[in-house]
Structure formats: structure tokens, C-alpha cells
## 1
Amino acid sequence: MAQCSGELFDVPGELSSKAHTFIGLSGLDTLNNATHRAIWDAFTNNRRHDKVSVHYKLFPPEHVFPTAKPKRNTYEWYIPKGILKRNWMNKYLNVVPSVVVIFYDLDWFDPFWNEKKIECASRVQSVRAALEGRTTRIAVVLIQTGPPIPAGDESITAERAATLCTTCELNAKNLFLLPHNDHLHGYTLRLENAFYDLAQSFYNQKVRTVRGHRDHLNKTTHQYLFVRHQFKMGFLNELKHDATAASKHYAQAYSHLLDVRVVDTNTLEVKTVAAYINYKLCRIAFNQNLPRDAIAQFRKHIDLFKNMVGPKEISFEHHAWLSKQFCVFGELFDEAIHHGLPAVQTQHPGIYFHQAAQHSMDRKNACLENCQDINIYPQPDPLDGLEDLEFYGQRPWRPGKLSAEPADAVKEKEAIQALQFKEKSVNHSMIIISLLGSAISQAKTYRCPRTRRQLVVQMAEEYYHAKDFKKALTLLSHMLWEFRGEQWSLLMTNVLLKALECVYHSPSVTEFVTLAIEAQSSTVLMQQEEKAVLLENIFRLLKGEPPIVPENIQVGANYGKVWRASFAASNESKPITVEMTNATSFLETKTSFGHSSFQEDKSTSLKIWIRNKCSQKVSICRSTVTVSSPTNSTELQLVPAIETVPYTLEPHTIGEFGCSFSAKQEDVGKEFTISSVNLCLGQKLDESILLRFSAQNNPQTFTNPTELVQFGFNAKELRQFQDQEQLLSCSVCPREAHLSAKIENEGPALLGEWFPVQLHLENNENGPISSVVIKISLMQPNGKELDQATHLCLNPMAEVISPPPIMIELDKLDVNSSCSYTFHLKSLRVGQKSLVIDITYILNESTKCERIENLDIEIVKPFEAVAKFFTQKFDQVTKAYSQEPFVVLLELKCLSPWSLAIEDTNLELVQPLQNVGKTCQSQLQNEVLNTGEVGTEAYCVLAEKESEQPVSVGMYTIRWRRKNTPKEMVTSSSITLPALLKVDPAPLLVEMELPAHGWVGSPMAASVNICNRTSQLLEVELNLQASDAFMFAGQKQLKLRLVPETVHTLCYNLYPLLSGLVALPQLKLSPADSSSELRANQLAELLERSLPTHIYVMVTRSLCGYVVTSNFFPFSASCEGQI
Amino acid sequence: MAVCVAVIGKDNAPKYVSCLNPNMELDFHYKVHNALDVVEEKMSANGKASGDIRELYLGLLNSTDDHKIFGYVTNTKIKFVIVTESANTSLRDNEVRMMFRRLHSVYADVVCNPFYNPSEPISSKAFNETVRNMMAGNL
């Protein structure tokens, strides 16, 4: 908040205090009577927060109010001595109440009613007497502690109230009761409203009275009274909380004031009153949420009085008044904002505080102009009595005098001298600085960064004038930092020059050097000569001599002395270091590593380029670069490309410095960063300035406009400089290993086999290597689990196979010698496997080296196995019948690109299947399958019992190896055969025994076994049908009864008649009765798959000497087909 | 008419500042510089509310007892600022607009010059002449 108090033209307290309705309370003995105390507290403490605000004051019963002035009947001969009386506002705020309330303890049924009635009346009378001549309202409150009046007794109370009113000469409306009980607060609220209404009527009457005066006034002599009366009405309206009416009257007062003829003698009074009325107007406007009106009124106010300076000798007074106007308005504005008024960037209190500061500056200048020579305060004090003037804004040496009277010239002169003397002692700078401070904080709030900067610069200037150079310099250097960003050269130069001035006054070697170096920058608008002087001054400083002061700066006599003192202080921190991140300058640097990474046993280059942008030669006696790694930082010295000491950089050229950068072994994996470039400016090292440039954020971004600079006319050097790429960090990688690792394998690997991989190492280093560790591990795909289905080992014959990685260690390997290792990989899943082979070793017993090889291996399936199912007649089937043998045909297809040798195969059957026959040797044993070839073997299998569910056949196991590998490397692969078939029940089993072939003309025996598999008796009809190719003997048609689990055998003797593949006589079975479980088609199917249909019959046996033609054997059913 | 005319680049660096009274140059630099606060505020406000994007005239930026400051922003964020005296009440908003249009077209001429580098301050004779005229009230 601005400091607007304790000064000339302060807003008086009675003006700034909030206008309350003033009500006096009497007859309350708060000290001795607890009931009265409670009532008083209820009135004063429990303030309501609505618009009705009342100011209570407790008057003792014998209080004497000031006597009222006699009423003036005519204004004809009255000449007012001033505009506003100083005591008037205070009178209505704190002295004369609008209502006096007399409290009196009296119950309706008080035993001493009559006595008390009279006492009450006398109290009322005494108060009335004290307020003689005033219209203050009087009210009486009876405090009643007794029980409430019973219903029906109202007549008595009404009568007593009437008599009391008569005795007290009181309007019955002004008599109140206050029962003292629990609801005190509620009663006081209601009383307060009643009092408030009385107060309103009092103020209304007052306003009417004042308005009534108007008719008596004339415009020639009573100008002041017009103002006064309107002001009074405004104020009274404010007391009765009628802001609109108050505002109207104040506005009229203001316009009447403007009609007053202003001369030198009453300028101050008019301005003071104008300020007060304006204050009221603005405050009311803000309170009514009409900020535009407030601002407009204030603008008008300033416009009207801006040029009303008054006597020239005391013009500072006018500036002080103006400054105060702005300041007070700013505070009002700010207060309104605190109460919720929104402000904007272009209209906020800061603007007014700034204006106030500006006027204070004018005031200071006026003071400098007028008060310089005043050294004596006149005696007697012409300003005596300043505090007890009757009117606002009058002069103590001629109070109440009208402008028409001639001034006492001597007294006037002395008084002016006294004012000037007083003004001289005022610390204007502090006022200005505090106003600027307020403005700055407001500018910050309302997003005016640039305005804020200007304000800060003004503040620094004021500090400079107040000779507080240190503070000024601090502010200026902050602003310099901000102005640098936007290239407002003129502003920046201005700030820089001011800062330099400060340094001349308050010596600081570092600050001077920093500023002088910054001044060399091309963006600073200074003459070349001036810049050169500054540069020269820098070197004077280095030699321990104070800088030459430019002519326009006045310095004290002890200039040299204070500078020498500062040298002593700065000597300890030599060399003088200037952080160039904080300055735009005449030098620009760029720095770069040669490579973004280099191997530990090699080195890279490190270069800096320095661009001289000023038009003078620059000597650099040393240049270093700070390179930092995560753990430490080192400083490297660089040598110029063209070596001279000191190195001189011509104007507008680029100098190049370089050195080589190498790393130690422990730095492997670290990243080095160039953090800063340090240049020693000067001829000799001990007389030089260290300029520290940050490598990261070069200030050149400030100075170089980024757009299209390359197209400028004289941009050759700039282009050259810009072309240099910056590479600020560089990582160290391990040296390259000269150990050759050759990996051989016969890929792809086959699923499940131990796949051998050969690793050949050869030492191509220049010395023997030792502690060689080869680590072979599986590369884990990101985010996936370790592959459990892949194994690695060195020796697959070993019993225990440890999980990967596997390690091979080797103590030593001489130069140019080599060694080989084989390791094996086995994967139980197809797909690609990646291996990492990491070889670490130590060269020459000191240098650690590492070589990493990656190996990808594809895993493929070696075989594919297909199972097919056939009946014994080699008809393909999809289901089997219990107890009926069938054939499983296994086809093994070789998918491997390599020829595979089958060692053995094995079909492991699962229940209920079993092999027919005891031993079952693989038919593929010792076969070799080439790519794409198929090996087939057949097994005769029997299902023991039926099964509803499809049964699986079992596991087919193949033991195999690659054809060219030794016998030990056998791999066993198992393939689960696909789920087969249902096994259906077969009630009968029919077999036919028949020789392999027959001869024409020679009989052959055939027998048919019919077996009942069920546990029931089955009856079937058998029918052997005739055939052209055979004659036969045996039962042709038969009804069979098959006992459970028995076999019935039918024997036939067949006599072939034709040769070739001939059809056998067809056997037919049909159920004997319809109730049987057997069905005809089921039996037909059974026969079809069980019995052979054809047989091969040879031509003749004549060669064997048999008579073919007539040889006939009779058929016999019992005959056992002997031939 | 105008007492100060300024052209400010898109990065808020001045390209051209000319004022009638050379003694007040620093003062005007500050004034124009401070006006950029309002320009930036208005530009960000315009960005939000999708008003007429073709309206380049920003209107009155700031007015003090002595001066009024008007602003104008091209589509390429080049800002024009004109300062007039507050006492000059005859100047209408439309006239200020016209002055900006004129300035814009002269500026466009300057930029069209193949030998002009957009990053450099404007040092065109024709441009100077137009601005001088503007300040003399001959437009």
C-alpha cells in the first residue's frame, strides 16, 4: 500500500471515516449495573452487517452538549470567512447525536410508580435542556425486569404509559419498553430499527433546514456558503445512508466550488475543499460499484485543477497536492478492488500511483528550484496555529480573511519562507520510491511487465538521486538482465549508462568490469570513443588505478580513495571473473567436441571459436574449457590455431582454439559435457579478466536476430561462425577388441537336438591376453520371461545340465594363437533363438577389453508323422471294432534339410489298444531319410473293448540322429498321434481260415469261425451262397444258436472251377428272429469287413501229377479240409 | 498528428522508431515499449476469442494526460504503434486506422525490397518520408 499519510494534504480522519448514524444513549450505568452493561453490550457489540451502521455513544446523565448557535434569520450582512469548517463534520459524527435515548428502570407495577414517574420525567427534562436549540430526537426506554403483564391488564399499562408520556412531554411513539429477559438481542434489534427511524427523521429535518438557507443567499457574497450547504446536505445524507442523494449534493457542492473566484490567497482553500469533495464523490461512486463514474470524476477534477498552481514560490505545494490526489485515488481504487471490483491492464491503481510518483518528482524539482537558498526559519513562527484553524485549507497567518482584503506583504513573505524551509527538509525521494513501489506491485498484478521495468528504472534513478547507489545499481542490473532480452537498444543503453554512473559513485571492480564489457556490445548505442575509454578503464583497473570519470559525472573529492579501497577488497578474488551469461558482449564463443563419442584408447579434438564483434583488437592470453563428467570436472587449456602470446583477435574475425581430449580407462561409459569456456582477456595473465561463457545457453540468442541473418551484406564472418556446429557432449566408449571370434554352425537347428556351435577365437592383439571369459547367454526379448524351453551346454553327454548362461574361462591366449570351443543348444520350441556371446579379457595385464557377438539360430521341426488306419483288408477306416484287429499305418516325413538316420522307432499304444503279436520290431530301423522322403511302417493293433469316446492311439517315438554324426548323438523325438476313432462293439467275430491261394481243380479247405462276444445267446441264420467259381461242400444253410463266449466252427471244402482272382462263395448271416439284438445290416457290415471276398486260384496242378478233370471230393461239413 | 511512429518485430524488438521531438526519444521508447504489454494482452485475448481475424487494428492501447497510444498488428506479428497527443482531439479513430493502413502498405513495400533483410532495422528513405508526413499531419 502506498504511503499517503503523514503528509501535507492528508485526508482528515472525519472525512475518511465511514459515515455512521450517530445515536446517544443515556441513563445506562454500565459500571455498576449488570443489566445495563448487558444492554449496552447488546447495542454495541452485536453489530448487524447490513447497510444500516449505527454509531452509539454513551452519555452520562449530566452530559453537557455544546450550545447550539443562535439561528441566523438573515444572511444579508453575513460574509463567510471560509468554505468548510473544520469542526463541522466531527460535530455530527461524534458530538451531536441524532437521537438521545434515555434508559430508565421502571416496571408497570412498580410500588413507587408515581415517584419514579416523576424522576424519569426530570431526567427527560434535563436532557432536553442540555439539547436546547437542537432538533435531536429524544426517546425513552423503560427497562422492565418484572414478569410480563397478564392479559387483560392492558388498560392499566396503557393508562400509565399515557400519563408517563404526558409527564415527560414525550410523544407516545417515542416511549419504548425493554423487557430484560433472554431475548435481549432480539429486543435491541427492534429498538435499533426504531431509533434508526428517529435518526432518519432527524437528518431529514437537518437537510431541510440547510436547504432552507438557500433562499437567503446571494451569488456575489455567499459563494462559499453555496458550497458549504451542499456539502453539509451531502454529508447529512451520507449519515442517513442515502448514497445517491449524498452523491448528488456533493456533485452540486463541487460545481458551486468551481464558481468560486480563485486568487492566490484562496487557491489552497479551494483546492483542499475540492480534494475533499472529490474524495467523497469518488468513494461513493466506488461503493456504488460505478468505477467509471469515479474515474471520470477524478479525471475532471485533475483537469480542472491541474493548472491552478497558485503562487510560484510555493509551486511545490501544488505538485504535492496533485501527487496526493493521485495517491488517494489510487488507494480508493485499490480498496474497491479488495472489495471485489475487477480492474484491467489499462485501468488499475498502479497507473495512479505512478502519476502520483511523477507529481512528487515535479514537487521535488520545484522544491529544488525554489527552496535551495532558504536556510533560516523565520521567527516568530508564521505557521503557528496551523492545527487550530477554523476552516479547511486556510493559511495560519491570515485565517478567515477574505480574498478581497489586501495581504500583509511582509508576513506573506515570511510565511512563504517558512513553508519553503519546511519543504526543504522533506525527503522527497522516499515518497517517490514508496509510490513507485506501489505502482510496481500493481503493474505486476495487472500483467504489465514492461511498464514494471520502466517503473523499476525510475525507482533506481530515484535511489541514485537519493545517493543510495548500491540499491540503484542492484535494481539497474536486474533491469539490464530483462532489457537484454528484447533488443530495445536505446533503453538498454540508457540503463547501462545509469548503472555505470552508479558504479562511478559506488566503486566495485567486478561490477565496473561487467558493465564496461557489456558496453562493448554492438547493441549498446555508444560512441566508439566512449567504448574505447571504457575498455581502457578496464585495463586501468587491472593496474590498480581508478577509472577515468567522464566529464558529465560529478564525483566526490575522495573518488580515488574509495576506489583504492575497493581494489583491496577485490584483490582477494583475482582474477576478476565476469559471468558472460549475464551480459551480451562483443565476444561470442562456440565450442565443440570433434566427435560425439570416441574410444577410450583414442582421443578426440576439442575446439572453441571466438568471434570478435567489436571494432577493436582483443587480446586473449589464456583460454580454457571446463569439461565435466558426472563425477568431476576438469579444466583444459586450449592453444590458438595460430600460436602467438598473447593471442590477438582482429576486429570482426573469428579465432579458433583447440586441444585434444582423451579419456582414462575408468571414464568408459561416461559422458563428458563442456560446461563453460573461460577466456582471460588481457596482455598478461596477472592483469587479465576472466570471462566465463556458459557453453549451454549462449547469450548470442539475445543478440542475433534469428531470421534470415545469413542474407545480410556483411554476414560473411557471421555465417562462418554460425556454420560451426556445437557438440557439447561426448561419450567415451570402450576400445575396440582385436580378438577375432568366428562362429560356425550348421543351421538351422532341429527341434530337440543338441545343436553344436563352434566358436573359434584368435588373438590378433599386440600382446598376450589373459583372464578370457566367454559368457554365452540367451538374449531375452524385452518384457518376456526367460525362455525355459531352451538349454545350453558344453557337453550334452553330461548328466546335469545347468541353466544358461554358460561360461567358458581361459587363462591365457598368446599373440596370434587361437582356440576353439563347441557348445550345444537345444530348444524344445521352434522359432528363432538369439544368443549373446560376450567375451571379456585383459590385454597386457592391464587393459580390459570386451567383444560381443550375437548369434541367431533358427529352430525347425525334423519330422512330421501321420497315422492312418486300415482294416485287415486294407480298407481305410475311421473307427474300430472291439476285439477286431486293424492296421495302423505310420508315415514319417523328413522335414529337415539334413539327411536323418532313424535308429529306432516305437509305437507306444494306449489302453484299450494293444499290439497283435508279441514282439514288434520297427520296420524303419536303420533307415536313412532324406529331405522330403517318407518312411512308412504298419502295426497290427487290436482294441480290447469298445469305447464311446474316441481313443488316442499313443505316442510315436523316433530315435534319430543326423546322418553324419556319431552314434552317441541320438535324439529321441516323440510325436503324439492324433486322436482316433471310436471303438464300436462287435457282437460277433467272424473269421475265415483259408489257404493263401488255391489251384483249379484241387479242393481246398476253408473254415469259418463264428464267435459270440456277447453274454447272450444269439441265434443267426447262415447262408452260403453259391458261386460260379467254386463248388463247395459244407453246410449251405443253417440256423445257428451261439452260446455266449463260444466259437462255432463251420468247415467247408472248396473246389475251385476257374482260375484267376475269383470271388469266394458269399457267406450271409441274418438274425434268426426279429427280437434279436442283432440287426441285419450290422451283420452284413461285419461280414463285409471280416471275410475275404476273393481268392487267387492258380491254373493247374498237372505239373505235380494230379488229375485235374475228374477228381472230386465230396463235401463234408465235418471234414477238416485236408488236402 | 502522430508524434511518434514505431514498428516492432515479431519478437518485440524495435525495427523502426521515429518521433517528432528528438529530445523525447527515450521517453517515447519507453512509452512504445510499455504499450507492448497491452498489445501482447490483446493478441492473446484475440487468439482465444475467434473474432474477426482480419481486423488488425487494435485500437487505443493506452491514454495518458499527454498522449494516446494506438496499436496495429499484422498477420506476421509485426506491430505498429502510433502515439498522438491527447490534446489533439480532432483526430478520429478512422483517421488513426487510415494511418495504420498506410503504414502497413509502406512497410510491405519495404519488405518487398530484395535488398532488405527482415531482421534489420528499417532504413528506407521512402518509409521515412511517409512517417515524416504522417507526423507532420500531411496524410
## 2
Amino acid sequence: MPAVAPRSGDAIFASAERVNAELFTLTYGAIVRQLITDLEEVDEVNKQLDQMGYNIGVRLIDEFLAKSNVSRCVDFKETAEVIAKVGFKMFLGVTATVTNWDAEGTTCSLVLEDNPLVDFVELPDTCQGLHYCNVLNGVVRGALEMVSMKTEVTWIRDMLRGDDAYELQVKLLKQIPEEYPYKDDE
Amino acid sequence: MASTACFMIVSRTDIPIYEAELGSALKKEDAAQQHQFILHASLDIVQDLAWTTSAMFLKAIDRFNDLVVSVYVTAGHTRFMLLHDSRNEDGVKCFFQEVHELYIKILLNPLYLPGSRIASSHFDTKVRALARKYL
């Protein structure tokens, strides 16, 4: 029987190196600010943040698997739980809750009550379409793609727009079977 | 609550970035501009005084009839200016300190450009609540 995967990232989070939360928040803020200045259009900024997140995600998954000792997840439900309880805790210091499963078990929501990225932030009228935390979308999407799951991640609720929590909808599009580029008998 | 009060935040480059009429009494049309005029006029005095003292709170630096101008200068040289009828000095000081806290929060918002107009309705509500509490 495989070792039971850790159900919380507390231990790893406690031992990991950390930076000051305000430094982190303001650095992320500066990135978003600069993107808005450079790209001028909010939609472009969203796209760029998502792409940046994706690039982070495809690298972060390796670190995550190396440090967290999670075993292979049997289904998408378990995957979502691990992301919410271990992944978010490890890298962001908060945990998410997984809710709103659909009947097929391919779509769920990660709900964040607390989000360190958005301290101090208030959306001005000029940036109403901005998904400030869009980088998180990309991270989740990129990380899952590296473990052969094609997903689509969208924001459902956003506190900056007056909702009561952050809700990230993760939709499993398809599982890519592992492909071997080589043949054994050659 | 003071019968008249006008509050204004002036950026370091002398641009007004926030204005609020905090008085409870109804005023004539031209009175509002008059209050702003008085505050703007006292900016020169603030400029001279600010460098002579290390205190941030400069009380009653100018007066106009029964109205007094008090000013709070932040470290970044943003000036909070309040026109009030002289009664509650401690209240004014507390008001400035709490507004300073709010202003810092605004300044920490990455989407706010320092020196631009403060358009946040949240800030506006909070300032008005503080004015009711202290002035």
C-alpha cells in the first residue's frame, strides 16, 4: 500500500524559507502595475499574468513533488484536495477549500477566504476588468499540465469586485496519457 | 461636530488630490469655493513652517474670521489641510492621525499612482466617519 499522502502543507510551510509578506505583496503589486503601464489594456494584462503564472506553474510542480512527498493521486478529486490543502499552503501560506463539484467530477471550485496577494489593493474605476490574481490561474493550469491534465481555470468570485471570497473554478478538459517518445525495442 | 469644516489633501507637488466638505451646516453656493480659497492661500505659510519644526501637526497656522486652518504634513510632504472653527484641538489631532493611517493604506495600493487623485469611495466614507467622530 502506498504511503498516505500528507493532507496538509503545514509542516513543509513551517520549514520552508519565507519572505516578508508585505515585500511579497508589494512586489506582486509592482509587477501588475508595470504590466498595466506597458500593455495599457486590461485584457492583455490578464493574459500576460496568466502566461506568467503558467511559466511559474510548469516549474513549481517539480519543486512541489520533490518536497511534499505526495503519492500519485487516484482521481481528479484527490488532485484538487492536494492542491487546495498542500499546494496552496506550501507556496502561498493559506489553504483553500474544494467545493461545487459537478456530477461528472470534472469541475470544482477552489475557494480562498484569505489571499495574501491582494492586501492593500483596491481596484480603481479604470481597471474594472482586471483579474488581479490571474497569476494563480496560470500556476494551477501550468502545474496540472505537467502532470498530464489539461485544465481550464477561471475566476468565479473575486473579493476585489465585491464578492465575499475568491473562487477559482478548475475544469478538467482531458487527461493526456503519458507518451513515450522512445521505443524500447529499438 | 463642527458647524463648518473643509478638508483637503494636497500632494507634494501642490496639487489637491482629495477634497471634502465636512460641515453639518448648509452653506451658500459661494462659500464652498471660499473655503478652498482660504486653504490654498495658507499653503505658503505651511511651506515656511514645515521646515522649522519636526512636528507633523501644525495647529492653527492661519485664520479667517472665526475659522482656523490646521495642517498635518506627512513625511512625504503630502499636506492634510483642515479648515475648522477652533474648538477641539485634540479631536483635530486625532482626526489627522487616523486620516494618515488611511492615506498610507491608499498609498500602499499598487494600483494607485502617488500624487494622483484619490477616487476611492471607501476612503471617502472613512474620512467622513472620522470627521463625525472627532470634529
## 3
Amino acid sequence: MSEQALPAGVKTAGIRRHSGELRALAARWGIYVFLVLFIVVSGIVAPSFLHARNLSNLVIQLVPLALVALGQCLVIMARGLDLSVASVMATAAVVGTSFSGDNHAVLPIIVVAVLIGAATGLVNGLLVTKRQVSPFLATLASMIVLQGLRFAWTHGAPTGAMPPFFRALGTQSWHQVPLSLFVLVPIAAVVGIVVHRTILGRKIYIIGGNPVAAGLLGYPVAVITIGAYVASGCLAAIAGLILGGYAEIVDNSVGSGFELDSIVAAVIGGFALSGGRGTIPGALAGAAVLVLVSNIVLLVGLPVQFQIILKGLVIVLAAACYRTR
Amino acid sequence: MSISSPAKSPTFRPSPHVIRLGLVVLFIAVLIVIGSVLTDRFARSTNFLNIYEQSTDLALVSLGQTLTILTGGIDLSVGSQISLLSVLTSGLINGDGSLVLPVCAGVIALGVLIGVVNGLGVVFLRIHPLIVTLGMGAVLQGVALLYALGPAGSTPDGFDALAYSRVGGLSVSATITVLLYLLVAFLMRRTATGRAIYATGDEPAAAVLLGLPVRRVTVLVYALCGFFCALTAIYLVSRFGTGQPYAGTYYTLESVTPVVVGGTMLSGGRGGVIGTLLGAYLLSVLNNLLNFMHVSTQIQLIAQGLIIMVAVSAYVERKKVA
């Protein structure tokens, strides 16, 4: 629907008029300004917001969403969409409880969960690139199949416990710094550097912005697109393990809603579903906005239903702000 | 379904969409054969009449979804619309028979209004329909939960006749649904608006250049989608006796399945509503068959996911959309 935009960061000096430049500037930095304003206003409205304990809790809630959003960004950049992430998260969490439940099982759990995520991403990527299935349907179908397989494996009610390692990772902090942040930061740094500082990243933008041109330029469009889905699956699996550790009781709905929330985070962060636009730090800020909105609704004492209502308004507003001409 | 199919081609070649419709019918036939072989209770007229009746809700909501998808859009707010409208229907009627007509009229009007807002959002904000309707869906779900956290209100005696009454064994609501499908299919083929819906989805830029009322058509399809959501909500209230704020959740993504299985392309402009009706019957037959085989819900899910995968990878899409 919307027109293509140049990837953020591409120099367009002298081409656009001043209003266009202002607009581009707002699109580039607006999310961070909004985030800071939001935090300041929240701190004034509800002083308990800035308590170390609340902030630490917010980060714990943010990490799984941010991890999934990172993968979702890669897919959306390549003009795709991944609806299967929540299903991958729940499956990873179920894998987490399917072993002995002590810390010896940590490595096998991580390997199996990430492999499941990668396999799901591979199927998604192959359907999208080799069979030209629309990403919405390909990932919807794999979401449903994975859900069925998981139900069949658990007979509907997962039993067993997450190893203490994941419980600690999901809930505990080191000097008020949540442990899960030590997972997110390196992963986000790698993804950010690949996307914004390497030729590969540039190619993903171009594939999303104009797949035909990317093909004509000789880029391995299919390989890169499949890679984006595989990365998304792997990141969702890791997020599922952390969220499983946080939730403690693992059931089949771990991660439900994350498929849409991760898309919302990406859109707030400047990604367009038509591909080729958006930045990784922007998407992380988008995920933070989502978590903060939910938190502030509770802190100011609004009914919990306003969390969903505000989320809906924020996504439409954000998309409207980023709209290009 | 191309508009300019050559009338006098030397060898007759059915359009890809007709082939797809044939495939769906063939698949339904195969399922029926399998069912009759596996159990002698499957191929009985009472069972077929049940399948017919059970297809109503999904067929109704998918009819609206087909129209939005034909314009190259999608409506991901259908689930929340049905949830909100169903809980409003039973909550406002609250057992009072004299309120049935005004409340149902109001609910239908509200469904259309929600659809119009969706359509205006798509047209004037120029945001991807998926985002607009996702946001609308979240807002409506929140409003539904503000209205009631659980099942609300009740319906007067006789209201269940809407869902359960049969004439000559045929479910009335399912038959009305079929008639709605035929009406929409006829209008899509025979009216300028119908052709404009196809053109909008096929090549929006060209449709604008041709002077087609793209904006009006876009608002219209989302309004119609809201209309069919309202009908689905009223049907569900009649069937279950009450509405509840999560009544529609399942339909958000589920409504897309019959559409794509029926051969309508998510990229817009290709397909049609009759395919969707066949797709809804296919899913209804499949679920019925799996129930007869005492297959657990999980296997039903797997089967359904695989059918989507097979169907959409068999119908290769020419254009890609998000």
C-alpha cells in the first residue's frame, strides 16, 4: 500500500525539501524523544515508576519481547512477517520442561529449542521464497502445525519443571541488573551491527525495499530471506526459554500475543510492512514503549483493559507518524 | 479470474481459479470417500446436514474477510468485533424479548460503523490494513472487556431458533448464509462496484488511473466485513444463549483459512467468494471426519495447518504482500 522509502540513514541531502528533511528527522529520532518524554512524564505522574525495583521488573518483562522483536525486524526488513514466533516460544518453553529439570539439562534444552526455532524458520523461509507463499500464510500455517505437534507431545498439559538456571535467568538480578539483560545486550549488539554496519545488512534493506532490483543486482535473495526467518525462529526460541523461566509454570500459552506485540514493537520502531525501512535501536525502543504503556496503566490505576486499548491506539498512531509520501 | 480471458481460444482452458475450485470440490469428495470407508455413520444424510449447519459461523465471517482480501487488504479485527458485538447483543437484550429487534439492528449498525472506521483508516492514514485492523482489534477487545469480563446477559426464549431452526432438515441459518454468498457472488460479477473491488486488489495504481472509486470501494469492503461480523456475533449468541468477550478470538486468523483454501490470493484481485464457501465446507467436513475418527484436537490442528500449507503452496501467488 505505502510507497517505498529510502532506508533510514541513506544520505538524501539536497533532494528533499526542508519539510521532508524535518519529517525524516522526526521519523529517525521521534521514537527516542517519545520514549524519554514518556519516562519523564511517568516518573512525575507515578513516582513509584522510577523505583529501582519497578525499573528492574520492566527490563525483565522487556527482554523476551525485545528478543522476539529483533527477529521480527529482520523478517519485516525483508518484506516478510513472522506469525509463528509465539508458537516457537511456547514450544521452546515446553522443551525446557521436558528434560530432567536440573541444570545438567541446560545445554540440551538450548540446543533442541534453538533447533526447533531454526527448523520452523527454515520451513517458513522455504515456503516464502521457493513456493512464493505469502509470509502471512506460510507462518500462520507453521504456527498452527507447531501448535498441534506441541499439543500432541504434551497431551495438552505440559508437566515438569524448568531447570533452576532458566528460573534464575528469567527472574533474578545482579545488583538490580536483570540477568536476562546479559543475554539481550550481546544479541541486540550483534543484530544491530550486522544490520547497520555490514554489507549483508544493506542487502537485507534492499531486498525488502525492492526484491526485483535485489535479484537483478545478483543478491542471494532467497538465502538471505530464509536466513532472516531462521534467525527469527532462533531468537523466538531463546525468548521462549527466558519467558518460561520467568513464568515458572509452563503451559501451552507461553508467549501468546508475542507474534502481534513483536510486530507492533517493530512498527513503533519505524519498520514498515512493505519492507526496507526501520532501525534496530528503534525497534528496541518500540518494545520498551509497549512494556512502559502496560506498566503505566497499572501504576496510575486505570482498569487493566486500557493496556490493550492503548496498545491498539499506539500502533495506529505510530504507523501514521511514519507514513511516507 | 482475469477480466480479459480470450473468448475464442482454440483450446478451452479453464481459468486458474476454476481449476482451484475444482480441486477444493475434489478434496471434499476425497474426504467424503475416506469417511464412508472408515465409518458407516459418516455418509448419512443426518451427518451431512450437521456439517452444513456447523459451517455457518465460519462461512459468515469469511464472506466479509474474502472481500477485504480481494482488495489486497485484510481485516484482523474480525475476532474482536465478534467478541464485542456478541457480548453487547446478549448484554443489552438481557432476556427482554421486546429488545431483540432494536438491539440486533443496533449491533449490525455498530458493526458497519466499525468497518467504516477501519476502511477510512486504511484510505486516509494510508497505513497497511493489517496494522489498522490490528490496532482496531486491540481497542475493541479492550472495550469488550471493559463492558464485561465474562459472559453477560441472556437471551429470551425462542432466540435460539435463529441458529437451530431447520426447514425440511436444512438449517435455516446455513441456508441464509448460502443465499448471502450467492448474492455477493452475483453482485461481484455483475456490478461495476464488484469489478472495481477486483481491480483495486489487482493493481491499485491502475485502478486509480482508470478513475475507479478505489477509496469508496475500500471503505465499502471493510464496512461489509463489519456487517458480516455482526451477523456472526448474533448467530453465535443465538447458538450459545449468551455472548462473551472472547467469543470471537478464534475467528481472527481462522477466517482467513477458508478464503485462501478457496483459492483467493492474499495479494488481492484474484479469487472469489464461492471458493471461500467451498473452503468453509472443506474445513467443516475435515473437522467432522476427524471427530468421527476420534482424532484429538492436536491432530486436527496439524491437519488444518498442513492443508493451509498445501493449498497455498499449490496456488502459487504472482504478487507478494506482507
